[in-house]
């Protein structure tokens, strides 16, 4: 394998990692502040993608579609928070798992009821389509570079939000001491609704951005959900920095593992079985990574609390 | 009733002319109606029910149930339909792994199973059974045709990829069975994978002159969109599954011009197909898909056998099924010795008609094509 | 006698009476449904030892369920094709005998639980949930891409395995096998909870420091509980495979883990008969709602929401009232 291809694959791994970060950021935020396991996070991802696809089909504008994904997912998130999630903060993780699992069923089939059983069309805007040539001669799609940029901007935005703003102060206070924040006269219900809606909006935006180069269909959220959990657990729950590092680690492991493992096995096996064995091992690789990280660091890389 | 549906009713009446013979037949349909794969099951069901409705035959009763794409649910439904509903024939399953779970136990319990979609190699070869009929294709067929087409198109160095599971392994094996050129690369992707940046980079670097892929459902949508955006402009060949009516609208312009192989298309020129395409659109307001055509043919096969024999007389009914005397929307259709189709497989090209993406037939890839496993079948 | 004991007796007898009624009413499918309830409840009883008694929320019990299933699938498929499992260093033949298969399933899933538990128990809380999920996913992807035993297509076993003296193909006899095993597991589970081991485990769940001061290592208690739990779920997996005469990687999926957990929460966490009540309700809902509408998952989801929001402590908690424990 040439060095150039290897560099391109590393870039692909980074890009996949940033895509994962987009979905994991909202999840880790909600978990960190409210201590809530939200299995329905993937459904909010799906709602964002469907809202974007429907808006793009109606208006033809990708920007409007992105705005719609943010709005729809935030609205769905706020609604669910007020109706259901609010009652779960004081419950143990088991009740949260069951209730949010139930939400997945409602959201998935509800979406199918509204939009039908066939995948929807959502494509990248013409301005961002096609490849550019990077220094060194690598041809790389503009849209994927855009995703990397958006992801890094969101990471930066979240850092600033949490470290510099009033809301950030409240979020940090809420993470460390819930009674204190109520004693300070802050409306904790409102704070939680805002944080949940923010997490949902991030998931929805990710759904729209990723949906444009993947497929917009019912059930698209569940594989993403599992990966997002892997990411935030590796990074340490509640840590935005951990989520970013965890995403990139998972992205690189998955991409490079899928490329390099079959090549490695070809050194001492015949090509067909090397491809089969290498691919089998590659598909298990991120879970092996996660198990190894947790065995060595039981709270994840940057985790503060269990 | 307009002219067309009158014509249909008339054909149906001809088909069901021998009805005096028939005992009521109960058909159990187990198919996927919920979750991400529901589109395929709904198409099979709609195609099947259209044929039943057109026949106007009061002696056929259909029970439809959702398997949720879970093998254990499918097995449970099959047990229920056999034990409680007392069905004579089962059909409907979309996925090979569900078919592998259900078919052996159905045939072992002395019922007929007619597959409207899945055709795993195990059931075509050593595991074949007198009561099992496949009305669609053996899983390898469309991939074999893609291999044959790659030869005629003059491809010498193809890059091939498929997910790492049995149907994916069969796909690549099927392609290689007919393809005569070299392989620029052979890659197994993760089942359910949605990001193909890394595979596309490998294709670009491999020096291939063409690409063959089998990535059903959302995987194929993702691959095609990302491929079109990558700037790699090698020709792509694949089986019909990623280019079907239900999926194509979601892929959009990224699929334009792609060649794919199929045993059916809406422009195949025969009266049965014309009538089917029009009636399906009139009934459901959308273009029929490959899966709908398979469901439609399956129902018409059952109806044709009902006209000739009593389902309780298994040997006679089986002979009537084997004869396959129905107007297939694919044109010529007959069964091989292992009860799998012998049929033409076409090459189609994706094009745009108005604002709908669809396919047109370019030519025949493999004529009167049977599957590779018939020889292993002893029955 | 507490209300819970009466309720438990009613559940146990009801689960026996229903298929007997079905037998005389000639509704063999209803017997199959009851067998499904009994087997899934057995898987839940296994998980409940880790989850209810030990406070170990495992989202990876599908691993043991699947291992049990594949123990049956692999042994029976070799017996079916008359090819030995391995010849060196010593000959191992396939088998169609249920007791041998059960033993294999229990041992294999116990060993897996020992390894997974030993690593996973280094973490706690949500991290424990997620690391068990990771092990389940590893086995899931392994089973899908491992071609020797069918990969994603799974393995079909044409005839149900045999049990000495019984005709297992007869639905009611197979039900009785599953029922007896379920009752045995429930009895074992009840005695375990009342034993010194169970009391120490329960104490370790509430405050780990307290048991440490009397010289017990919570890690060992939990690992033991996890292994026992995995063994019972593995046995249920072997029976489930025999019920369907089929195994596939779906048994390893995280949705399977989630469903087993849902039986417990629905029925009432840490309640002895919780998994029985939960599995019975879930299967009934699936059966009844599935016929009502193409979009029946919506109703199922809404019902589950109502249960978790308003019926705290699950079915048994609601009917029998809060009592002694549960934090």
UniProtKB/TrEMBL annotation, chain A:
UniProt xrefs under PANTHER family: ABC TRANSPORTER ATP-BINDING PROTEIN (PTHR11795:SF442), BRANCHED-CHAIN AMINO ACID TRANSPORT SYSTEM PERMEASE PROTEIN LIVH (PTHR11795)
Cell compartments where the protein resides: Cell membrane
Membrane spanning stretches: 16-37, 44-64, 70-89, 101-122, 142-162, 191-213, 225-252, 273-296
Membrane topology of the entry: Multi-pass membrane protein
Pfam families given in the database record: BPD_transp_2
GO cellular component: plasma membrane
UniProt GO BP: amino acid transport
Record-level Gene Ontology MF annotations: transmembrane transporter activity
Entry superkingdom: Bacteria
Main location (coarse class): membrane
Cited InterPro entries: ABC_transp_permease (IPR001851), BCAA_transport_permease (IPR052157)
The protein's name in its UniProt record: ABC transporter permease
UniProt entry keywords in alphabetical sequence: Amino-acid transport, Cell membrane, Membrane, Transmembrane, Transmembrane helix, Transport
Chaperone found in the keyword field: no
Family from the record: Belongs to the binding-protein-dependent transport system permease family. LivHM subfamily.
From TrEMBL, chain B:
Top-level taxonomic group: Bacteria
Domain Leucine-binding protein: 24-353
Gene Ontology terms describing biological process: amino acid transport
Signal peptide start and end residues: 1-22
Pfam families, per the entry: Peripla_BP_6
Entry keyword annotation includes RNA-binding: no
Entry keywords, A to Z: Amino-acid transport, Signal, Transport
Transport among keywords: yes
Gene3D superfamilies documented for this protein: 3.40.50.2300
Family of this protein: Belongs to the leucine-binding protein family.
UniProt protein name: ABC transporter substrate-binding protein
Origin species: Ruegeria marisrubri
TrEMBL record, chain C:
Superkingdom: Bacteria
Segments traversing the membrane: 6-25, 37-56, 62-79, 100-121, 127-150, 171-190, 223-241, 262-284, 296-320
Main location: membrane
Pfam families (alphabetical): BPD_transp_2 (PF02653)
Ranges in coiled-coil conformation: none
MF-aspect GO terms: branched-chain amino acid transmembrane transporter activity
Subcellular location: Cell membrane
GO CC terms in record: plasma membrane
Annotated membrane topology: Multi-pass membrane protein
UniProt entry keywords in alphabetical sequence: Cell membrane, Membrane, Transmembrane, Transmembrane helix
PANTHER family according to UniProt: ABC TRANSPORTER ATP-BINDING PROTEIN, HIGH-AFFINITY BRANCHED-CHAIN AMINO ACID TRANSPORT SYSTEM PERMEASE
Protein name, per record: ABC transporter permease
């Amino acid at each position: 394998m040439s060095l150039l291809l290897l560099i391109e694959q590393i870039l692909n791994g980074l890009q996949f990692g940033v895509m994962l970060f987009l979905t994991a950021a909202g999840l880790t935020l909600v978990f960190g502040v409210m201590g809530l396991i939200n299995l329905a996070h993937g459904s909010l991802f799906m709602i964002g993608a469907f809202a974007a696809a429907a808006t793009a089909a109606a208006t033809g504008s990708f920007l409007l579609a992105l705005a719609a994904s943010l709005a729809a997912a935030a609205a769905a998130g706020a609604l669910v928070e007020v109706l259901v999630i609010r009652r779960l903060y004081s419950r143990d993780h088991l009740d949260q798992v069951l209730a949010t699992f139930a939400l997945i069923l409602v959201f998935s089939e509800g979406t199918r009821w509204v939009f039908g059983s066939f995948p929807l069309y959502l494509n990248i805007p013409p301005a961002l389509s096609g490849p550019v040539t990077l220094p060194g001669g690598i041809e790389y799609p503009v849209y994927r570079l855009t995703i990397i940029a958006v992801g890094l901007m969101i990471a930066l935005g979240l850092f600033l939000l949490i470290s510099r703003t009033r809301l950030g102060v409240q979020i940090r206070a809420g993470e460390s001491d819930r009674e204190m924040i109520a004693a300070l006269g802050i409306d904790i219900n409102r704070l939680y609704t805002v944080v949940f809606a923010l997490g949902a909006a991030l998931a929805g935006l990710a759904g729209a951005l990723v949906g444009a180069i993947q497929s917009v269909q019912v059930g698209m959220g569940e594989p993403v959900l599992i990966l997002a959990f892997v990411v935030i657990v590796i990074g340490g729950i509640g840590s935005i920095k951990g989520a970013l590092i965890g995403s990139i680690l998972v992205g690189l492991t998955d991409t490079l593992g899928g490329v390099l493992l079959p090549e490695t096995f070809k050194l001492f096996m015949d090509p067909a079985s090397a491809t089969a064995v290498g691919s089998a091992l590659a598909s298990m690789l991120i879970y092996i990574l996660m198990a190894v990280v947790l065995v060595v660091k039981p709270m994840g890389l940057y985790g503060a609390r269990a | 009733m307009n002219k067309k549906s009158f014509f249909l009713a008339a054909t149906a009446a001809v088909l069901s002319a021998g009805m005096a013979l028939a005992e009521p037949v109960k058909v159990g349909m187990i198919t996927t109606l919920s979750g991400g794969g529901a589109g395929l099951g709904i198409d099979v069901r709609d195609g099947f029910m259209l044929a039943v409705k057109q026949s106007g035959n009061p002696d056929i009763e259909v029970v439809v149930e959702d398997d949720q794409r879970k093998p254990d649910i499918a097995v449970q439904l099959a047990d229920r339909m056999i034990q409680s509903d007392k069905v004579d024939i089962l059909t409907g399953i979309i996925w090979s792994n569900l078919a592998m779970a259900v078919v052996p136990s159905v045939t072992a319990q002395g019922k007929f199973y007619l597959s409207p979609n899945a055709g795993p190699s195990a059931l075509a070869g050593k595991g074949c059974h007198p009561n099992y009929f496949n009305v669609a294709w053996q899983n390898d067929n469309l991939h074999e045709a893609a291999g044959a087409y790659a030869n005629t198109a003059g491809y010498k160095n193809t890059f091939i990829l498929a997910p790492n599971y049995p149907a994916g392994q069969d796909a690549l094996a099927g392609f290689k069975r007919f393809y005569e050129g070299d392989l620029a690369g052979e890659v197994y992707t993760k089942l359910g994978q949605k990001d193909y940046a890394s595979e596309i980079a490998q294709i670009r670097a491999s020096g291939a002159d063409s690409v063959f892929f089998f990535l059903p459902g959302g995987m194929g949508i993702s691959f095609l969109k990302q491929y079109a955006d990558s700037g790699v402009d090698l020709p792509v060949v694949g089986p019909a599954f990623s280019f079907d009516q239900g999926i194509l609208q979601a892929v959009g312009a990224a699929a334009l011009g792609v060649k794919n192989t199929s045993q059916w298309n809406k422009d195949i020129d025969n009266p049965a197909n014309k009538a089917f395409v029009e009636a399906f659109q009139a009934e459901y307001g959308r273009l029929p898909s490959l899966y709908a055509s398979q469901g439609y043919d399956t129902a018409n096969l059952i109806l044709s056998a009902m006209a000739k024999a009593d389902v309780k007389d298994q040997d006679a009914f089986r002979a009537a099924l084997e004869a396959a005397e129905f107007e297939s929307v694919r044109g010529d259709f007959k069964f091989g010795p292992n009860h799998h189709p012998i049929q033409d497989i076409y090459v189609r090209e994706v094009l745009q008609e108005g604002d709908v993406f669809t396919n047109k037939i370019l030519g025949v890839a493999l004529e009167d094509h049977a599957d590779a496993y018939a020889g292993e079948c002893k029955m | 006698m507490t209300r819970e004991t009466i309720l438990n007796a009613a559940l146990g007898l009801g689960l026996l009476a229903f298929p007997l009624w079905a037998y005389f009413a000639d509704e063999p499918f209803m017997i199959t449904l009851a067998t499904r309830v009994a087997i899934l409840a057995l898987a839940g009883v296994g998980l409940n030892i880790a989850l209810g008694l030990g406070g170990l929320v495992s989202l990876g019990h599908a691993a043991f369920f699947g291992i049990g299933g594949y123990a049956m699938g692999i042994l029976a498929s070799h017996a079916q094709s008359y090819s030995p499992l391995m010849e060196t260093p010593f000959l191992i033949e396939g088998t169609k005998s249920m007791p041998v298969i059960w033993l294999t399933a229990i041992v294999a899933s116990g060993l897996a639980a020992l390894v997974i538990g030993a690593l996973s128990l280094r973490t706690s809380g949500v991290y424990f949930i997620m690391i068990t999920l990771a092990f389940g996913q590893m086995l899931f992807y392994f089973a899908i891409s491992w071609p020797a035993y069918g990969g994603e297509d799974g393995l079909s076993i044409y005839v149900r395995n045999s049990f000495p003296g019984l005709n297992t193909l007869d639905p009611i006899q197979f039900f009785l096998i599953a029922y007896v095993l379920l009752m045995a597991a429930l009895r074992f589970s009840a005695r375990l909870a009342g034993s010194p081991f169970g009391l120490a485990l329960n104490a370790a769940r509430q405050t780990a420091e307290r048991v440490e001061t009397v010289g017990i290592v919570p890690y060992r208690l939990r690992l033991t509980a996890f292994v026992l739990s995995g063994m019972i779920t593995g046995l249920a997996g072997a029976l489930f495979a025999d019920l369907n005469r089929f195994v596939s990687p779906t048994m390893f999926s995280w949705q399977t883990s989630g469903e087993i957990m849902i039986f417990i929460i629905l029925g009432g966490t840490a309640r002895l008969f919780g998994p029985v009540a939960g599995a019975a309700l879930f299967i009934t809902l699936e059966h009844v709602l599935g016929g009502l509408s193409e979009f029946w998952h919506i109703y199922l989801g809404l019902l589950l929401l109502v249960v978790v929001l308003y019926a705290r402590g699950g079915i048994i908690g609601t009917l029998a009232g809060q009592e002694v424990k549960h934090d």
